[in-house]
């Protein structure tokens, strides 16, 4: 299971991540600073947290292995005389690793927890109620759309939760929409799509 703890060493993969960070910094660095300022955080935290999230997305901390004994159709690529052929095959036993992604789960949960702490510490209980309402909406939709995929885990349309979180936040409290959207969007997916569907992983 150690291999899930380390980022891949493939040069092209790492180069892609570095290019993503460069272009995101170049074109959206100012937008990140504004977004963090609207969440009540230092605008200078935007790029460091984005960099940590990007690096952390390559690190999965394995929690559990789930063995599936259903027939699963997979494919492998075979090269012959320079021509690549995709060959399907049936695998009777497959293994799904339940893991926590550092960039996609650990860092967002820590940041969301800090934002919630600030809201409570400042006595903004109306805002807290709005966050919890938005969280319930995103959680319910994520639970509804998430589907277990044999050999993969839980899958769902990636664009639905952030759009739902953004629209719900704007309707509830436009002034604090960034905080509501971030907390409900991150925690809602983790709770609704992942935690509430762990028992459904084949």
Structure in words:
Strand 2 and strand 3 form a beta hairpin. The longest helix has 28 residues, at 11-38. The chain starts with 10 loop residues before the first helix and ends in an 8-residue tail after the last helix. It has helices at residues 11-38, 46-56, 102-121, 125-145, 160-172, 177-194, and strands at residues 60-68, 72-80, 83-91, 94-101, 147-149, 153-155. The protein is 55% helix and 20% strand. Helix 5 crosses helix 6 (177-194). The chain folds into two domains: 1-58, no CATH class; 100-200. The chain contains six helices and six strands, in the order H-H-E-E-E-E-H-H-E-E-H-H. The strands form three sheets. Strands 1-4 form a two-stranded antiparallel ribbon. It has a two-stranded antiparallel ribbon with strand order 2-3. The mean pLDDT is 78. It is of the alpha+beta class.
Offer a few descriptive terms.
two-stranded antiparallel ribbon, 6 helices, 20% strand, globular, alpha+beta, 2 domains
Compact overview of the structure:
The chain has about 200 residues and is α+β, with helices and mostly antiparallel strands. Helix content is about 55%, strand content about 20%.
Largest sheet: 2 strands, antiparallel
Extract low-pLDDT stretches.
none
- Taken from the alpha-carbon principal axes, the silhouette is globular
Average pLDDT, rounded to a whole number, is 78
Q: What is the tally of beta strands?
A: 6
Strand arrangement in the largest pleated sheet: 1-4
Number of domains: 2
- Tally of individual helices: 6
Order of helices and strands: HHEEEEHHEEHH
Distance between the termini: 20 Å
Overall helicity: 40-55%
Could you tell me the strand content as a percent range? 15-25%
Q: Structural class, please?
A: alpha+beta
Question: How big is the Rg?
Answer: 20 Å
């Amino acid at each position: 299971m150690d291999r899930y703890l380390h980022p891949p060493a493939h040069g092209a993969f790492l180069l892609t991540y570095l290019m993503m960070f460069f272009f995101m910094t170049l074109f959206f660095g100012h937008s990140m600073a504004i977004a963090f300022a609207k969440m009540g955080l230092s605008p200078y935290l935007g790029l460091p947290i984005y960099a940590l999230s990007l690096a952390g997305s390559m690190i999965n901390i394995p929690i559990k292995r789930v063995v599936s004994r259903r027939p699963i159709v997979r494919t492998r690529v075979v090269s012959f005389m320079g021509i690549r052929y995709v060959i399907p095959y049936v695998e009777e036993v497959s293994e799904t690793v339940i893991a926590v992604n550092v960039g996609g789960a650990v860092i967002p949960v820590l940041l969301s927890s800090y934002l919630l702490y600030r809201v409570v510490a400042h006595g903004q209980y109306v805002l807290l109620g709005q966050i919890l309402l938005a969280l319930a909406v995103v959680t319910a939709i994520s639970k509804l759309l998430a589907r277990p995929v044999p050999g993969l885990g839980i899958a769902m349309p990636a664009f639905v939760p952030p759009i739902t979180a953004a629209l719900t936040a704007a309707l509830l409290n436009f002034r604090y929409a960034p905080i509501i959207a971030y907390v409900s969007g991150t925690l809602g997916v983790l709770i609704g799509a992942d935690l509430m569907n762990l028992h459904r992983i084949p």
